[in-house]
Amino acid sequence: MTEILIVAGEPSGDQLGGEFVEAAVRMRPDLRFFGATGTELEAAGVERVVATAELSAMGLTEVVSRLPAAWRALSRLTLEAERRGAAGAILIDSPDFNLRLAGRLARRGIPAVQYVGPTVWAWRPGRVRTLERAVRRLLVTLPFEPAVYAGTGVDAVYVGNPAVDRVPAEPPPRREVARALGADPSVPWVGLLPGSREAELRRLGPVFAEAAARIRGAVPAVEFVAPVAPGVHPETVARLLTPAATRFAGAQAGISPPVRLADRDRYAALAHCEAAIAASGTISLELALLGVPHVVAYRVSRVTWGVARLLVDVDHLALPNLIAGRRVVPELLQAAATPDALAAPVVTWLTDSGARRAVQRGLAEVREALGPSGVARRAARAALEALGLPPSLA
Q: Cα–Cα distances in Å, from 21 out to 28, 39, 148, 200, 283?
């Protein structure tokens, strides 16, 4: 067997890793993966050395609180890769951790592929030099990123965006989805997506719940749907979205749940939403692919935000806006992400079909820019070739 280290530092990377491993093993059945895993990687057959939950963080203050665990994980993964004679490493997202790990592996002669590039186009461009030294190939997932690395020593390959593979082209009928959720198919649905990281959920969940209260105040006949991100417990989402729930008109404990949790077929639920409020991140691209108008919220600690304001050099943070090069969906940052501000565009979309269609036209442009499906297969092929492990199957 050929052993490969794979590291996912967050739930989103765990999902991406699970898809990658399944595609890679189809091409090379002799591969055996081990590393930092969550539920998705383990379901794909990866042996756990470190839990993804030990590494997941967002923002400077959150990272600082997890430093001891991160350093322990760094040492354990390095030693395990060396002990097993790993043929290479697949490092998914989480660049602050993974680029350090890549450097350690490079010094031991273990080549690494970084899957999902660091945002050097937004801040800390010096990481390009680290990539040149430590990474054999960089697999990027945003269509404008290869141009960022042109003229550098980084072998950057656009493999497409994973959201394209995940989002179904044809969701189940609305009535079928409504039955599964216990929702009313005849009224508009609004998605509430406060993120997958613990810090995001804590900061955004209660604010989204308050925004939902404002929306129902303006549009009484509305259902709220909360698709649960991979690796997140439904109970956590329910708890954080509950504070304002009891103030919804007509809500009665145990009779009419004001927020419907979708912890199974989350994309089917999202596809039938007329609008959504979402944390900044991949979920915004998934909503774009589904054609769902949404408002993006971004909240981090004051320390992280203070540093980011000095260092970040981009006009937009929401991924659809970055890809389009213009504002397609509203994005509200830090103190601007208030319940009233989050609710306002949603109320507009629910009451003005022309405004809703205008946003959908912009989202269609983003969908076209992302390219075709087959992302996991292209990523696996590009990574294996970079590691000197040419796929034996197409």
A: 10, 13, 27, 27, 22
